[in-house]
Amino acid sequence: MKKLLCLCFGLFVTSCGPKSDETSDTQSTTKTTTTVNSTTPAPPAAPIIPAGTLTQANLDRVQNDMSSAEVEAIFGQPSSSQSQPIPIVGGTQTTYTYQSGTSAVTIIFKNDQVKQKSGTFGP
Fold this sequence. Notes:
Layout: H1 2-16, H2 56-61, H3 68-75, E1 80-85, E2 92-100, E3 103-110, E4 114-120
Antiparallel strand pairs: 1-2, 2-3, 3-4
């Protein structure tokens, strides 16, 4: 309750202080820190999907412009990879392929940034 009163008083003081176009003979700065204790439980976290699992949920975690290291943190090392130079424009295109059973994921990087992704997922 004491913190709430201090917070309300702090809001009152700042709203009653000089406006930006008004001048004041003295300048003072007051810093107020408020800690709120909540008894409301946090919302449930999204389920953790193990890295390396070939699922649509893991593929959805892969976003454009992610690096190969970020993708490897989600899927692990690829089953195979192939790199080739990009003609005219320059740089390198790398294709990661992940396979497990009847599931497969392909991710294409241009200059170590995700540009395309696709996957098929079996039962």
